[in-house]
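Let's study my pick:
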Amino acid sequence: MTRTVAIDGPAGAGKSTLARLLAEHLGVERLDTGAMYRAVAWAVLRAGLDPAAGEAVASLCRGLRIEVADRVLVDGVDATEGIRGADVDATVSVVAANPAVRAELVGRQRAWVDARGGGVLEGRDIGTVVLPGADLKVYLTASPGERAQRRAGERRDGRSAEEIGAQLAARDRIDSSRRDSPLPTVEDAAADALVIDSTGLDAQAVLQEVLACL
């Protein structure tokens, strides 16, 4: 029986939609680990901290109460919309590159799985770092243009697909070059991961590819 599923890949590849559909199919909970890093970035900006101030950011992170479900709560404040803003988009990679932040959140993610006996986790290093022993690992990708179009459709802040595409490319460069838990490319994905290019595929088609491996 599949109890833990790791879904990795770059922003805009369709991880959240797949995670939601798969969790519903399996009857388990899901965790958007990217929302946890965004929650920290949101809190950093709210506190007026420099996102690159390593220890100050790490200290703030350790003290945060982060709840990620249908809504995202940070110390009891609803940050669901705030964590998707342009300011957080521009900051989250810097915060996520902080080794102490990653250590803290990876510990929380593993504890989340242990408390539930499994679940569907989406992120950028789930199959390679957080849950290398997951029952099923998926690496989901898409073309840069499609990723930008999808993300532009999700955002309501007036940014064009071209602007978002440039920001996604910059984030990929930062995330894939950080020393601690870099974003794996397709070539670096877990050796036993199911690799799916979702370009031109709808959510149900991607789901069926994954279900065929269960």
Observations:
- The mean pLDDT is 90.
- DSSP finds ten helices and eight strands in the chain.
- The longest helix spans residues 99-116.
